[in-house]
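Work Package 3 (structural annotation) set out to generate three-dimensional models for the target panel prioritized at the project kickoff. During this period the team completed the workflow that converts sequence records into discrete structure tokens, so that structures can be stored uniformly alongside our sequence database. As a representative example, we reproduce one entry of 298 residues exactly as it appears in the project archive.
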Amino acid sequence: MLFILYHLWEWASFAFAPTNCYNIAMQLNRVGVFFNEQKQYVLPLAQKAVDFLRQKNIQAQLLPNLENLPDFDVLISMGGDGTLLRCARAFAPKNVPILGINCGTLGFLATAEQEEMPQVLQALLDGKCTSLNRLMLQVSVRQNGETQVMYALNDCVLHASTMRAFFVHGTFNGVEIPPYFGDGVIISTPTGSTAYSLAAGGPIVAPNVDVLVITPVCPHSLSERPMVLPAGGQLCLKPAFKSAEESAIASFDGQIHIPLAAGAEVQITKAPFALQLLTWPQRGFFNVLHKKLSWGRP
């Protein structure tokens, strides 16, 4: 009975998800294959993907970096979750679908494992891959009279630059929320709910749910708990310190870090675009939870 309920839950989650489903094969002409240049063992695998696609009369291009890129119909990310996060920030604004092939350690966001590469590439050509829209964050960092706009697929994290607890004051849609006091806060998307937020005690959120999750990091209070907010609002956060020597850092997907000066303001909203993440039937969300995070294992 539990087995049946488990798969009914998985089917229902995606049967009613706001997906953008279309036949990729009908418009697949030019494909970029990006690999993590810091992992040279991935290069031969990436070249195999390029050769496979070229044999199918697809214009495939090997990409060692994400600078000065032409337009692609699909991008293939070959590496771990970190590689796919980099690709998401670069290609989601261009509405380019991304297919991830895991060549890293966890590969939670990947469409397939590296040994499944021929099958998933053929599924892509046959139009059997589905595009799922993944919410992304738009973060405006305002300080010293300037504004920096950043994007993130997983999360934006405010944390101290030294090992000191600090306050984070905030408002949501202009209404004050109780302050956090601890090592920082994580503002995650549903996609990021299974990353740092989960490790800090946050909830697992299905990827098709349109929400933001605020998870405190090592709070110095028994009453501070994770909070789920509608993604359509505006969250404004301001770090506050006990002394002028202390400061904080805003981190995006754990890869980009911006120092926050005194008086800095961080505004977080839903990005005006979503990541089009390609998947196939063998890679359901709850199946990945079970295999990658050992959910449900004794």
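The two ends are 17 Å apart (CA to CA).
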